[in-house]
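TA notes, week 10

Several of you asked for a full example with nothing omitted. So below is the full record: structure tokens for the whole chain, then the designed sequence directly under it. When grading your own attempts, check the secondary structure regions first.
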């Protein structure tokens, strides 16, 4: 019986990347009785989410992000989006000299860099190398920005809205750069080795 390559393809439950030939996925349980595949680059993220690795004792775990916050439920509710250890991509004196569109780009980058998606992009970059990136202000009343991060064989696009209940969300992903609108391929940002997006603004 012949097994097609499509039948055995595995996709990481965290970064949605199809595993390369020879890569071994590890199974984790986001909740009891449900196991998903996680690629080698995202296993640390799975642990931080509190997922249980297949074959380990099912002792209840608390995700690292929750342990760090502490305090009352009220203080957690109104806590800023950015982690206390997360630095902005531009210092205060520099920010005062930026135009409104440039400030919007910096804010969108800061919001993205404070999210879990930054670690996902950093993990993929360790495997595929440095990507190209763009930050685009979208038209409309929601004041959303699109952050697009692309390699030759895969791309991710996120929508960022600092005032939204979900400040960052994965909008789309694909494997062909030709599927991206030309507007999103104005590469005006870069991604560092930790997955942080930094706008290409000469003054920062």
């Amino acid at each position: 019986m012949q097994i097609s390559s499509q039948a055995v393809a595995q996709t990481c439950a965290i970064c949605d990347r199809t595993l390369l030939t020879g890569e071994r996925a590890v199974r984790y349980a986001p909740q009891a009785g449900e196991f998903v595949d996680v690629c080698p680059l995202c296993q640390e993220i799975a642990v931080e989410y509190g997922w249980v690795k297949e074959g380990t004792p099912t002792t209840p775990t608390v995700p690292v992000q929750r342990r760090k916050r502490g305090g009352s439920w009220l203080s957690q509710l109104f806590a800023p989006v950015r982690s206390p250890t997360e630095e902005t991509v531009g210092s205060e004196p520099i920010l005062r000299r930026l135009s409104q569109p440039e400030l919007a780009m910096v804010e969108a980058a800061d919001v993205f860099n404070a999210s879990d998606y930054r670690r996902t992009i950093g993990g993929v970059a360790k495997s595929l190398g440095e990507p190209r990136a763009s930050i685009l202000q979208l038209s409309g009343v929601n004041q959303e920005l699109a952050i697009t991060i692309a390699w030759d064989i895969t791309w991710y696009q996120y929508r960022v809205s600092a005032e939204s209940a979900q400040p960052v969300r994965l909008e789309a992903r694909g494997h062909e750069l030709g599927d991206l609108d030309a507007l999103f391929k104005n590469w005006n940002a870069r991604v560092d080795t930790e997955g942080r997006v930094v706008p290409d603004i000469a003054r920062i």
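The chain has two domains: 5-66, 80-199. Use that as a sanity check on your answer.
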